[in-house]
Design goal:
heterodimer, A: mainly alpha, B: mainly alpha, 74% helix
């Protein structure tokens, strides 16, 4: 159902660009949770899925796309908040277990309860762009405009958020939860808010994904999706939004590349297995040799920092 | 009319499986201080190693138990020595370790799928049904219960009576103090990773022999295993013992409830999730502290 027509290389590239955009939004949302706040969300795919299904069900009921998108954002945010509440007061590992299990159970419910969205068969989704007689290339370009506009908005919002005083509290929680608590900050409240915002952003991505691929089923939302996003964040550089966008582009290009190679080469191994084996291996290698990722966390520019850097320059001159 | 004796017996079978699956998970979690998501793949690897011995080399099922034990022990040791110990030495955070364990899990599961294929495999050996009073049972279920109980006894003996057991408990409790007292904490961790993985491998083999063998065999019961670990208290062997049978009972009672509510019994694993959530809300330390320092 994907809008790819083999043989048109431009479409191939545009399709890859669309996926990079969709996953970059996911990577930004995980970066907000893990990179900046230190929350281990092992069920990212669940909130991506909630966004995709909420938006698609709305779209199939005939509502305009903008409304579907807003509903997807709200529902994904609320579900994220509810899923994280039992474990947010505890250590990072509890949150990881709960979110991972939550994602699996949600996928199972969608698979089994056919009245929600036709179970394993999946549901078709109308595209957000409905212009009669449009060529595939123009269609793709319009799609890319929507996806990258959304990416730009998500990027700007998270950049503003993490560089604000609010963002400094959040980073402080990541560095030392107890110390932040001692300073009088309600750590639990901040974590819950970040988790809700992160899930809502994943909902945006899910909604865009669904209307782009035009058919969604539970098999698209397996745990491996969560860990490709983790790989993008860890590879790109946690707590650096540009870095994780770069990471998303790199990982997607790798996956696409593997698919193209598969079309031209006869491999002795199943390419699907090989892809996941390589992802698993790469995650371990990155964690072992470059856990800080490609790009480092940038310093927050505050007036206090400027004054202190001037003072430092002065004192080094003397 | 519900056959309550059968429900209790089924709970014992389920509980025994969960105990075998969770013992290694809770001990490694307590000792190396992170949840090892690749534990699921220790189960799967043991089951496939057993399959290779029993079906591909056509040796008896009793040999495949040893094969599962040994293969998973080697995998546990390799995981610790090649992945988790180097990562810890490089100062990896708990989140890094968890992500690495997931990566390792994908690596192992899909390597298994590459070797043995993804379609379900079955053991030729059939387990005849027989009735004892009102209870219907099969020999594999009896083997599962007996193995879990024998394992529990041996583990109890090791933990309380041997130097190794004391070293394990000391390292889990306070690694720095244990090291200062002359305990080789790394060696202890290696032994625990081997034993834990080996028991998981045997559990995986039993589950495969009872139902069917697929690469996801461990992943399917990772959630109940985590529920057992959390309910029992992380690192607590005796807590896990009680929690495994509690969860087994809860799950079998839950199935009855699902049937009366006309819901799919596929949701039985959601019961583990509910217990996990309730534990986290009301008693995040689980049963752990009930046993003092012995756990």
């Amino acid at each position: 159902m994907r809008l790819v027509k083999l043989g048109d290389p431009l479409i191939y590239i545009l399709d890859m660009a669309a996926f990079i955009g969709i996953f970059a939004i996911l990577a930004i949302s995980l970066n907000l949770e893990y990179g900046f706040t230190g929350l281990a969300n092992f069920g990212k795919v669940a909130f991506f899925m909630v966004g995709a299904y909420a938006s698609s069900i709305m779209a199939n009921l005939g509502y305009p796309y903008l409304l579907c998108l807003i509903v997807a954002i709200i529902i994904a945010g609320i579900v994220g908040l509810l899923a994280s509440l039992p474990a947010l007061k505890l250590r990072a590992d509890y949150l990881a277990i709960v979110t991972l299990a939550f994602g699996e159970i949600l996928r199972y419910i969608i698979k089994n309860e056919e009245w929600i969205a036709k179970g394993v068969q999946g549901i078709t989704v109308p595209s957000a762009i409905t212009i009669a007689g449009i060529s595939i290339r123009t269609m793709m370009l319009l799609q890319l405009t929507i996806i990258y506009a959304a990416l730009a908005v998500c990027y700007l919002i998270t950049q503003l958020l993490v560089n604000s005083p609010y963002g400094r509290v959040v980073r402080a929680i990541r560095e030392d939860e107890l110390a932040t608590q001692v300073l009088g900050k309600d750590v639990f409240k901040y974590k819950a808010q970040i988790f809700a915002v992160g899930s809502a952003i994943a909902g945006i991505s899910g909604s865009l994904f669904a209307q782009y691929v035009r058919l969604i089923n539970p098999y698209m939302f397996e745990p491996i999706v969560t860990f490709t996003i983790w790989m993008m964040v860890i590879l790109g550089g946690p707590a650096n939004n540009l870095g994780v966008i770069l990471g998303a582009a790199f990982v997607q290009a790798l996956e696409r590349g593997a698919r193209i190679v598969k079309d031209y080469l006869l491999l002795p191994v199943d390419p699907h297995n090989l892809r996941i084996i390589l992802i698993g291996l790469l995650i371990i290698i990155i964690l072992m040799y470059r856990p800080q990722g490609l790009m480092k966390e940038s310093k927050i520019k505050t007036s206090a920092l400027e004054v202190s850097s001037k003072w430092r320059k002065k004192s080094s001159k003397q | 009319m519900i056959n309550w004796a059968q429900v209790l017996f089924n709970s014992a079978v389920t509980g025994s499986l969960y105990l075998l699956a969770a013992v290694g998970l809770t001990l490694t979690y307590g000792l190396t201080r992170f949840p090892n998501f690749a534990h699921a793949e220790f189960m799967a690897f043991g089951a496939y190693a057993g399959y290779a011995i029993a079906e591909q080399l056509k040796l008896g099922f009793q040999y495949s138990i040893f094969a599962a034990f040994l293969a998973s022990a080697i995998m546990g040791a390799a995981s610790y020595l090649l992945v988790f110990r180097p990562l810890t030495k490089r100062g990896a955070t708990i989140i890094h370790l968890m992500v690495a364990s997931i990566g390792l899990g994908f690596f192992v599961r899909h390597s298994i799928q590459e070797i043995w294929g993804g379609s379900p495999l079955t053991f030729r050996i059939t387990w005849g049904y027989f009735d004892v009073g009102p209870i219907r049972m099969t020999s594999i279920w009896i083997i599962m219960i007996c193995s879990a109980l024998i394992m529990a006894l041996i583990m109890h003996f090791i933990l309380t009576k041997t130097m190794m057991g004391k070293a394990i408990r000391a390292s889990a409790n306070n690694p720095d103090l244990a090291m200062a007292s002359g305990v080789n904490v790394e060696k202890v961790a290696l032994v625990v990773w081997m034993i834990g993985a080996a028991l998981a491998g045997v559990g995986g083999l039993f589950r495969a022999a009872d139902t069917r063998l697929v690469p996801l065999i461990g992943w399917e019961i990772l959630l109940p295993a985590f529920a057992v670990v959390i309910l029992g208290g992380i690192g607590s062997f005796y807590g896990a013992l009680i929690a495994a049978y509690t969860l087994g009972l809860a799950e079998n009672l839950g199935v009855i409830l699902l049937i009366t509510l006309n819901l799919s019994t596929d949701y039985r694993f959601a019961i583990a999730f509910i217990i996990l959530i309730l534990t986290l809300i009301f008693r995040p330390q689980g049963f752990g502290k009930l046993f003092g320092e012995a756990g």
